[in-house]
Design goal:
four-stranded antiparallel sheet, mainly beta, about 60% strand, seven-stranded mixed sheet, globular
């Protein structure tokens, strides 16, 4: 199993910044990649950014230049730095861990952290 714990959400003014953290508190599998997703009320969960085991990163176009994903391997923590936040960024943000082994293919999720951007 994999357990993920997000933190860092909160209320911020438009144009402000937040840094989300995702700490892996338990893992019995090697992690292929981590990702950040979000889900706004009435909308589907959407991918934002990912980082793989080789530290290669990729982003959805609408967050490029504003959001940055990074990781601290000794701390088993992945971050999402979010700058120039807009009211449309208001959502619950989730951390995801992908397990891809010959025996196990499974995604694990954290509990989510609320981000609210006030106009």
């Amino acid at each position: 199993q994999v357990q993920l714990e997000e933190s860092g959400g909160g209320l911020v003014q438009s144009g402000g910044s937040l840094r989300l953290s995702c700490r892996m508190t338990r893992s019995t599998f090697p992690i292929y990649a981590f990702g950040w997703y979000r889900q706004a009320p009435g909308k589907r969960r959407e991918f934002l950014a990912g980082i793989d085991s080789g530290d290669a990163t990729h982003y959805k176009d609408f967050v490029k230049g504003r959001f940055t994903i990074s990781r601290d391997k000794p701390k088993d923590t992945v971050y999402l730095q979010m700058n120039s936040l807009k009211p449309d960024d208001t959502a619950v943000y989730y951390c995801n861990a992908e397990v891809r082994t010959p025996e196990v293919r499974q995604d694990f999720w954290g509990q989510g952290t609320q981000v609210t951007v006030a106009s």
